[in-house]
Amino acid sequence: MDRRFYWLGWQLLLPGVGKRVWQIINYFGGPQNAWQAGEAELLEVPGITPVMAGGLVWRRSKINFEQELEQLHKQRINFITYEDENYPQLLKEIFDPPPVLFVRGSLDKLDYSVALVGTRRATAYGRTAAQRLAAELAEYNVAVVSGMARGIDSAAHRGALSAGGVTVAVLGCGLDVVYPPENGRLMDEIIQNGAVISEFPLGSPPEAWHFPSRNRIISGLSKVVVVVEAAEKSGALITADLALEQGREVMAVPGSIYSKMSKGPLGLLKQGARPVTGAADILNELGLEELFNDVQDRGRHKFKLSPAEQKVYEMLRGDPLHLEELIQRLNFPSQEIMAALMFLEVKGLIKKMPGRMYAAVDSGQQF
To answer: Could you give phi then psi for residue 272, rounded to 5 degrees?
Structure first.
């Protein structure tokens, strides 16, 4: 039997429990010897109980490789083993990489990759920040990695796609399961411009315990992890913790001190994470100084403004205005106006004054 099938077999047997799989494979010196081990031999592995050994042998006997390969082929899904040349090098460096990745799409363009993660209950500000940062990174050939969940994840993928960039979605279910269900079209677009991957076999549902396991792959594929919005207890913060354990850099997008969804990023900033006020901060962290300088130079001459930013900026080019007056005059949701104000201030186009007043800065910028 092809050696790749032994790797596949272990992924089918123990998906999402990388530490245990590697313990068994390393004990026997490789996936083939481990696969051929009997119940008595498996019992010699530290931590393996009689119930576990018996269960592994029984489940191993039920695996039909021909049937599995046929289903993968029907779904146009490939599998990459740890020993294959196209297995992501960054992911190999973590403590417990999945022995096998199931892939739809291509993982060829991951030389520079950044994870943008955050809450499913994102505010307009958070979604705008994720989408804009992803688009800016994509313009400089940085791949955007996320989890295709609602909220920040989906916004990050869409931002990268809008700029014609590469994006990778890591799922907590089988690749034949679309989760969340409304992201079917987004999933197809990601496959055409990057990849959708999972360590979970076909048919695996999106169970709660899958997602912390999934998060280690998101951070493992990335050189930098950026938390955009997250509550105090959030899966995005689990990803940040895993990133630190893996030796990755963690950054955070500042948010309102009055927003629950800013508690996570603000907590990370208190702990020493670097703040993100634009793509240049992330490019600098990646060590792409030449691109960083290019971003800075571009910023002196021309900015791309969203429709909301353009309207807010035009409104403020007259007299300074109070926040409430801006909200009343403009036909945009208040959260979108707040996000626009934040980005305009970061770009140096407006300034915040005492009493929640805002005014444009005469900078000579072009749009």
So the answer is: 110, 5
